[in-house]
Amino acid sequence: MAQTLRMTRRQFVITSAQVGGGMALSIAAGDAVAAALAHREPWSRPLGRGAVEINPWISISPDDSVLIRVASPESGNGVMTQCAMTVTEELRCDWAKVRVESISLNRDYQENLVYSTPGDFVATFAGRSTIPERMEYLLQLGASARERLKAAAAERWEVNPAEIDASNGVLTHKASGRSLRYGEIADHAATIKLHYEPAPKPASEWTFLGKASPTKLTNASIVDGSGVFGIDVRVPGMKYAALMQSPVHGGRLKSYDFDVIKNMPGVRGVAVVEPSAPRKQVRWRLSDQDNAPQAAIAVVADHYWQARSALEALPVQWDPGDGARWKTTEQLYDAALEVLEKPGETVDKDQGDALQLLASSKRRVDATYMTPFCDQAPMEPLNGTALVTADRVDIWHPSAISIQAYCTAAEEAGIRPENVHLHQTLVGGSFGRRLFGDDVCMVIAVAKRFAGTPIQVIWSREEMTRQGRYRSLKAMKLSAALGGDGLPIALHTRLGAFIKSGQNGLMDGAYANGLIPNVRVESTRVPLHILHGAYRAPGYNSIAFFVESFIDECAVASGMDPLEYRLRIFDKWPDAGWKKCLEEVAAKSNWGERLPRGQGQGLAISNWAMRGKPHSGTTVAVVAKVNVTRAGELTVERLDLAFDCGRILNRDAVLAQLQGGMLFGLNMSLNEELTIHDGQIVEGNFDRYPMLRMAEIPKKLEVHFGALSGHDRFNEVGEPPVGPVGPAVANAIFRATGKRIRTMPFRKHDLRWT
Amino acid sequence: MALTLNINGKSHTVAVDPETPLLWVLRDHLGMTGTKFGCGISQCGACTVHLDGAATRSCRVPAQAAAGMKITTIEGLSADATHPLQKLWVEMNVPQCGYCQAGMLMTAAALLEQIPNPTDADIDAWMTNICRCGTYPRIRAAIHRAAEALRA
C-alpha cells in the first residue's frame, strides 16, 4: 500500500480545476493565513520551550515532556495513544509526560517522505496501529532515540554507553551514581549519529505494552470541551457555508435565484460546484469509487445560521438525472433479489462439486437473506475549513486518512502539494465515512470560489445522511447439502449487490477455506446511482449475518444444538481459537439454560480479516439472549462475546472497542435502513434513522478474555464484533418465537407469537 | 439587535438575530465550541447546556429565550475539569471519539443535581443522548461512581 501511495505522489499531476457558475459578493480577504498558522495543530497543546527534535517523530523538551507524532488521525479507537505506547516501550520515557500530535503531510512531501517509509502507516486510516511492520517501526524509533540519549550521556560522562541505564525518562550511570533527565541531554542527543541500529527487545521482555492499560491521551481535551474537532476550527476572518447537493445522487443543478436571498442578513454569496469540472483523482485502493463532489450549491454567510437560513430560502431546481427511475425501495430490493434466480455474473470461488452434490442431495437447506443501505452516521456532521489562495491551500479537517485529504485538497485546488497544508483535527467518529476525501473535495470546491477567505463548510445532519457513501444493499441466496452426520458438505451462494463486493467473512472465511469441501460462490452486480463507501467492517457486516444465520438453519435442519453443531464443524479446523471462543462464550453466557417461550439464546461465530488461513484475523463468538413479548416487542437482554485476536497490547482499549463494536452491530441489525423515494434517500435525521440509547442497550454487555490464544499476532478489534451480533440476535429470536429473521433491520419484522 | 446572555457566570452582549438558536450563538458568535452540533432537531443531545440548572438542548432554543437565564456550558462545568464526572470520564476511559461527550457530561451533571443517588432506571430516563461509538456502559458506570464521590 505504501508503494502505491509513494508512486501516486511521485506521479502527481496538478491541473487547474475550474468551477463553473456561482455568484459572489466581495469579501475583504485580510491576512488570514499568518493568523491561521499560529496554531498548526488546533487541538494539541504546545510543547515546553526549547523542545529538541530527536527525529521527525519524537521531540523532547527541557521539562522532559515528549512529543510523539502519529500518522493516523484519532477518530475514537485510541490509535494515537497506542502508537505512542509502542514508541514509549523502547524509548523508556515517562508516560505521564507523553503527548501526541499528527504528522505534517506537507513536511513529509517536502522532506523526502520522512513519514512515509517503511510500511503503509502514513496512508493508513484510524486503525491498524498493531500491524507487525508498524509495530517494528515504532519500536525501532523508540529504541534508536533511547540509544542516542544514552550515547550523549556517555559522551558527557566519558563512560561506556553500555553502562548506562535508561528508565522512566532518566539516564543513570550506576557505578558513578550520576543521572540525567532526558530533557537535560536531548539537545546533545539530537546531534548523535549511531553507527548501528539497536535491536528492539523481544515481546517477551516488554514491560509496558500488554502490561499497562493507560487511558487515551486525548481524554483530557474531551471532558472540558477544549478538544478541537473539524467543526470547532476558528480561523480569523472565517465565513460559513451551508451546503445542498443534488437530492438524487448524480443529478445536476438546473437553476437557482440568488436575488431572492442576496439581501438576507450576513449573506456573502453562493458557490456552485460542477461535478464535471476536470479533476485529477488519486485512487485510494480501498475504494472503487470516485471521490469527486456531487453537483452542489452552497450559501456563504458571516455565520452558519445565516447561511443555513438563506439556503433554505433559496429557490433551487435540480435535474435529477437517471437515478429518479428508482421510484421505491421495493424496486431496489426486487432488483437485488431478481438476479439471485440466475447464474452469477462472476464465479468468485468454485472448489469441489457443490452444484452436483446439491442437485442430488436429499438433505438440503435453502434460504435468501438481505441487508439494506446504511449510513455510518458519525456524531460530528461532515465539515471542513479551507483557505485557498492563488498559490497555497490550508485545510483544517477531521479526515480519517490524512494523506487522502492532503492529496484530494491538492487536486481539487489545483495547487502543488508543497503548497498544501493539512491541519488534522480530532475526528468526531468515522466508521468508514471520512476515508475517501469526498468531503475534502467539496470543501475545497466551495472555498476556491472565495479565494483569500477561510470558509467553513458544514453539512446539516439531513444533508449528510442523504448524501452518504453508504454500506450498500446486499442480497444472498444460500444453499447447503448436509452429509450423513448433518454437517454441510456443499455450499452454494449467490450474491446480488449494487457494488462489487469482496464478500469478507465468506470468501476469506473458514467455511469456504477448508471446512466445507465443496463450495461455489457467485455474484452479480446491479448498476445503481446511489453512492456507496466503507461502513465499519465492510462486506463482513452483511455476510456474517447471512452465513451465521444460515449455519443456524442447517443446525436446525440437522436437529442439533447450535453450539454442538458448530463445535463439530470446527473440530476439523487447525486453529483451536475458534472452538475456544465457542466454549468460552457458551460457559460464560450459561448457554443452554432452560427458558420459557418468548425467551431465547442465539449463537454466532465469525472472523474478521482471516484472509483464508487459520491463526489469522480476529475470531469472535457472540451469544445473545432475547425476550419477545406476545405482542412482538423485542428486548435484547444480554450479549456475551469471546474473542481471539492473538494477543493484546492495551486491555481497556480492546475492551472499549469490543463494547462499542457490539453496540454498533446491534444498532445496525435492529434499527438501520435507508429507503428511497423517486431516487432520493428518504431518511434524514435520527428521528427516522434511529440510534440505540442508554435505555435500549442490553442490560448485560459482557466481553470475555478467556479465549485469547496468545498467538503472536495483535489483530484489530474494532470491526470484528460488528459481524456476529446480528445473527446471534436473529438466531435467539428464532428460538424464542420460531420466527426466522432473514432481513435487517429487525425492528420491521412482526415478531408476535401465540 | 443586541442580546445579553449570562454564560458561565459572565455577561456577554452579542449582536445577533434573537431567533438564532443558542447553540450557534455559543459556537459562532462567542467561540465557545465545546457545545456541539449533532442533529439540529433535539434528537442527539450533543448540544446540551444548562439553563437555570436544567439540561437543555440548545439547538432548538432561540437565543432570546435564554436571555435572563443562567447558562452553563461544558466550558463552565468546572473551572479546571475537576467536576467528579469529568475526572471519572478520564479515569474510566469513557470517551471514544468524544464528540457527544460534552452533551453527555452536561446531562449527567444535571441528573446528579436533581437525583444525587440515581438508579439505573433514573439513568435510562435522563441519559437519552446519542453516542455512536457505544460508550453507554461506561457512562452509566461513571455516573454511579460520581454519585458515590459526591456523597463522600
**Number of E strands of chain A:** 28
**What is the CATH topology assignment of the largest domain in chain A?**
Aldehyde Oxidoreductase, domain 4
CATH superfamily of the largest domain in chain A: Aldehyde oxidase/xanthine dehydrogenase, molybdopterin binding domain
Oligomer: heterodimer
Percent helix range of chain B: 25-40%
Query: What fold name goes in the CATH topology slot of the largest domain in chain B?
Result: Ubiquitin-like (UB roll)
Residue fraction in strands of chain A:
15-25%
The termini of chain B sit apart by 47 Å
Tally of domains of chain B: 2
Provide structural commentary.
The complex is a heterodimer of chains A (754) and B (152). Chain A is α+β, with helices and mostly antiparallel strands and 754 residues long. Chain A folds into three domains: 9-224, 2-Layer Sandwich (Aldehyde Oxidoreductase, domain 4), CATH 3.30.365.10; 230-321 and 382-458, Aldehyde Oxidoreductase, domain 4; 329-374 and 470-748, 2-Layer Sandwich (Aldehyde Oxidoreductase, domain 4). In chain A, 27% of the residues lie in helices and 22% in strands. In chain A, a hairpin with a 5-residue loop joins strand 20 and strand 21. Chain B is an alpha+beta fold and 152 residues long. Chain B has six helices and five strands, in the order E-E-H-E-E-H-E-H-H-H-H. In chain B, helix 3 (84-91) crosses helix 6.
What structural keywords apply?
heterodimer; A: 754 residues; alpha+beta; Aldehyde Oxidoreductase, domain 4; eight-stranded mixed beta sheet; five-stranded mixed beta sheet; 18 helices; 28 strands; 22% strand; disordered N terminus; B: 152 residues; Ubiquitin-like (UB roll); DNA polymerase, domain 1; 6 helices; 5 strands; 15% strand
